[in-house]
Amino acid sequence: MLLILTLLRITSSQTLVYSAFSDTILDDTDNWSFLNIDPATVITKCGSQEIIGGHLRFANTQAATKLLQLPPHYRMKISMTLYIIDSWDVDEYFQVYVDQVLVYKVRYSGLAGTNFLCGQETRKDSIHQISMELDHTGLSTFIYLTSTLNGDAWDESWGFKNFELFIFECPPECLTCTNKDTEADCNTWRLAHSYYTEVNFDHFVTDGWSIQDGNQNKQNCLEIPTICGKEVCGKDTILKLTLLKLPVHTQMKIKLKYLRIGSWEWADHFQTFAAGELIWESPLTSFPNYLYGICSLNSQDVFINIDMTFPHYEQNTKILIINNLDESYSNESFGVRDIQTFIKTTICGDKLVEMDEECDDGNLFPFDGCFGCMFSCVDGCSVCQNMICLGCFDGWTYLEYEFSCEKQINQKSSIITFQEEYTEPQSYPPIDNCQVSLLEVCIVCQNGFILNQLTSKCDSICNYQIVTSQEQCQYSYLSSYCYSCQIQCSDHCLQCISGICQVCENDYYLEDNYCFQVEKKNLCQAQCQICIDDVCYKCQIGQILILGKCLDICGDQIAPYSLEECVCDQNCQECVNTICYSCKNNLKLLDNECIGTCGDLVVQDSEDCDDGNDIEFDGCFNCRYSCSIGCINCEFGICLDLCLPGFYFMNNACSTICGDSIIAGSEQCEDNNTSEYDGCYLCKFSCPLNCFECIDGTCNICNFGFQLIENQCSNVCGDGTLQNGEECDDGNLDSGDGCSKTCQVEINWICNQGTDCTFVKYPQLICEFIQQKNQYQYARIKFSQEVQLLSDINFQNSIELSIIDLNETYYNITIMEVQSAQYQVILQVEYIIQVEIFTNQLKYPILTVKLTEQLYNDNLAPLVNMMDYLQLNQPNYLTDEQVQIAQAIQLVSKVSFLSIYALSIILIILGNTLSLWGMLDALQQQSYLKFINVLYPQTLIIYFQSSELISMQSLLDSIVNFSQKASLLKFPYLESYEKFQFYQVNADITEGFRSEIFLFLTLLFCYMSSLLLERVISIVEMSSPLQGFPKVVRFLQRYQRKLNKQIKKIDRSFIHSTLLACSWDLIFMAMLEISSYHDFSFYRTYVRLAITFIILIFVFALILYQMNGVLTWKRQNLDQYWFQKQAFFLLIKKILIVSVLVFYQREQILQTLLMTLINGFYLIYVINTKTTEEFEIQMKNIIMEASLTLFTASTIVNWDILQQYFDYNFIIIVSWIQMFLLVSVLISYMLFDLYDFINLIKSKIRKILEKRISKLKSNEEQQSQNKGNELQKANFQLQKSVFTRVEFVYHIQIKQ
Q1: Membrane-crossing residues (predicted)?
Q2: pLDDT, tens digit, for every residue of 1015-1028?
Q3: Cα dihedral angle (506, 512, 518, 523), rounded to 10 degrees?
Q4: How far apart are CA 675 and CA 680, in angstroms?
């Protein structure tokens, strides 16, 4: 019974260790820390209670945190009262983190509330009692409460109170445990070292581990002390600890709390080395960051509890904690606290031979061959080895085959008198506290006492550190903490658990559970006995002082002396002063000599072999060669001849085979089957089930309530008595009445005490597929009835999810609670499952849902099925290389969009006003391809993200963000269906129509502003002050003429072009509104329908406008007619395409075929439209329509019914082709616009050059004319000069 009690598992009782904020009036915040809020303001009034947080307090970017130090435990539970204030929006959650685990994430959107409690006057608040459980073994825990609210505290907030933390404690004296340990298991763990456990920053001591390439000073985040920390430790930082002279142990456990800070990547790993070997490695990136940083609001950080257990035997070892971070401290860093090192020691009496134990027979009885886990002789044995008796004392007879001694009885005569026969044996007085005695000498003491070898008395084992009923001290390493067998803390210890010091005073460090004062390091050797000012004056015994150094006198074979007294056994490995402390080659040390031991796997001179066991027929027994069973002739333990009948020669030995129908060797029977209860099991006799007495596999008597039939004990079904193996017994053998003919409860029946059966419909586990979104697939777990738990556990941990024939490393499954199962509370339980598969090898993976805990309805009827299967869609997964290619194509697409926008705007400025409208009208068709209801691969999903730039709706939304700035224009979200729901399209037409209103109001404002500006200019130029400035008047007149020219261009054709550009979005909004649900009890429904009919009227008016001249087409050139009515046919196409997308959204095949047919017919129309005037427009249309037709036609590979015929890689290849088609359209449009831009620039340049040339020519003609006039004038002057000279000569001649 004692053994059974010792091996009992750890109990599940819980203990309250921390409680806060439970009073009606709160005095303080109990040293909690709060993010982004003043702690002095967090206590508010909510009804008659004061709470933490509340109205106008906790909202966006705010959290409440607490670090708590806990006693040894293996599980914890948290409960609190949560206040939800105001009506939370969709997808807003309250979250609780416990260290690295997100233990609670529940959506509280859409709650109506119960009362006006916390200050809100328009909306009611709701109160929830929540709780959560998780496995936890850390020395401390970090609690983090927050929410995903995105609004201010005046709009939505939360608060809490009645916070309680329970733990499931380890058994007494256990310093660490798990929920799988027995009490005996956890008692073997011993604390070797403990550092950095103080919660108070002022008392935190940094001595202990050495830090290389990091800051040695203590750091803190939210006043939580750590070594290392943000931006002070990271890349190349190493934490070192050297452990010396550890007790004998078999395992080591290292526990710590690791603060991961910054943008760690999957390639960044945490690593731990012990004795040069890697014993633990993890990326630590699978744990989510806290919603808001604790080291700073925008930092990425999380506390992670790390628990490493590994085999370890060395008494001296070095432990390293490193990482392979590759970025600077500012990007990637870490902090550490709560580092504890445990070792697992051996226990004598656990039937396991470990370390220095020679044997372990599970008891403390002497004279049975093993006592105190050391070999001993049996009673009467004088010489023994390895529990085998080899000789007896006088008066004992040696039994050769039993290896034991029998007491000899000498009878002096053959006649024994009646008095002699019944003479009572001599009685001796009882020995205090002794259990077994012999001839007034105690051999075994009672529990709680130990035999004193000097006095032969039983002393209280308080002095031996063993617990009695009134004592607390147990282990030898607690001797310093044990006073009068009561545990107390050691000197200079601030905090201890069960006598084990956890935290020391300042200027003291913790080592081997003691607090030692931090002293200046002594430069003398450890062997120095007297050291003054770092100079050694005297060495310890066994050492000699030479030149200021202590050298060994003996044992190291290099000592300066060769003394005879220094010599030890030749097989001694460690010898000091003639005393041998360890031997070579696994030899055992006995009486200062190294001797060999049979069973140590080392063959000594006196041994033939040594296989380390005592199996008799395995070739080596008692370190002598032996033959196997069934072998007659063997050599060196190897069989050389044929085996006996029933034996088979295998692995150089004769062995039997169970199941060959031949009884041989140690086999008792052979029935050639593996049935356990048929009389023979594994070739050994076995009793039938429920048999009370059996001999050699044959049952003679069955248990009560069972009858013997053909050597089987069967219960008597139908006798009205409930027996073992029966679920019910209603006194008959009729099925259909709740109890079947085999006495099993039938489905949908409940039997009270096995007899009174009532029909109750059993609840059923239901698994439903919801949707696939990108690489994620979503499923729902629910039940056909409201159900409850009958055990107080976290039911989410009882849901086991797996994918058939797929390794768990290739997928990740996340369970999200919608409504969790509660203890003895009937609820409509529901969970959402998110599945991400990292491979494309599976066609249709099968998800297995298995429940390990039963649920019951209100009539205590159990689930009819606890396992279900669900077929998922084909995984939508891309490799990293494919993602990079898709993103590159997406970038090309975005650059093309922006380039086309820029070129079109420039062309509008330069005079080409139709370029932007035409481009938008054509390319918007691409953005609507994503609504085809097929499952696109990830490549196309990534590409379609860039198509948001095309949509007129998205373009207008990017210009003016009404949802953030215009509170009057906020509209409720009306959920769509199928692909529209996937892209979160709001089916409320008022949401999209506001952008169109903004567009037309903007255009109207520009038009009215132009008219007003023209009027102002005409008034200003006629004013009298400007009459004296003719140049200014001429400038105003010239600008007025240009403005008047532009205003005249704004006519019905401009409005018509604008409506055509917006027609895609207008028609789509109207069709989606028609297909949506309408609640006619709400006035908004009539507003939405009115807007819808207005849009349809405008569209119908556009059609009528385009139909003008349709009946007179015979009077025109046919090609010219087709080209002029292109807008009419394009509008008809838009209506057809949008109608097919909206109304055939659930008809995948028909939707794709109709869209391909529409695009194909329109492509034929565009090709047959021949015009020489607008060749560029025709080429653009042909490229666009050809790409659309090929795209919609190729989507057949994405049909659900054809998925099983196409490999996913083939679908990816098709998607690359489809992306090329769409991108080629963008590139061609960009080239055409670039060509127009270049031609327009060339035309402008040519006009400027012609104007300058003309001006130069006129200037040259003017200059030429001026030169002619000057030449004529010069000729006239010349003639006049000649005539004057002639006249002068004539007059001279006359005078002479």
Answers
A1: 898-920, 1054-1074, 1086-1105, 1126-1144, 1150-1169, 1181-1202, 1208-1232
A2: 777 777 777 777 77
A3: -170
A4: 8
